[in-house]
Specification:
Number of helices: 2
Largest sheet: 3 strands, mixed
Order of helices and strands: EHHEE
Oligomer: single chain
Strand content: 15-25%
Helix content: 10-25%
Number of strands: 3
Distance between the termini: 68 Å
Shape: rod-shaped
């Protein structure tokens, strides 16, 4: 069976907003109508991925002092 749909008029939406939000969060499609014509669909908000702040790992990564020194195993490729 598909997603249930509930259509309510503006007055009912005003008086039952908490119930309608709960229904939308459960996955039910909630449509608000004006004069029996659908005008708005109530849907849950998708979580927004926050951008990482630059420098968030500063001081947590250590690089050896000789990390860019030539490697003896690659002497033939110089």
């Amino acid at each position: 069976m598909g997603v249930m749909m509930r259509q309510v008029n503006m007055l009912e939406a005003k008086t039952a907003l908490s119930e309608l939000v709960a229904a939308a969060l459960r996955g039910e499609e909630v449509v608000i109508a004006r004069a029996n014509k659908p005008v708005v669909r109530l849907v849950p908000v998708e979580p927004v991925m926050r951008a990482r702040r630059l420098g968030w790992a500063a001081g947590k990564v250590r690089v050896a002092a000789d990390f860019d020194a030539p490697v003896d195993a690659f002497a033939d490729y110089r």
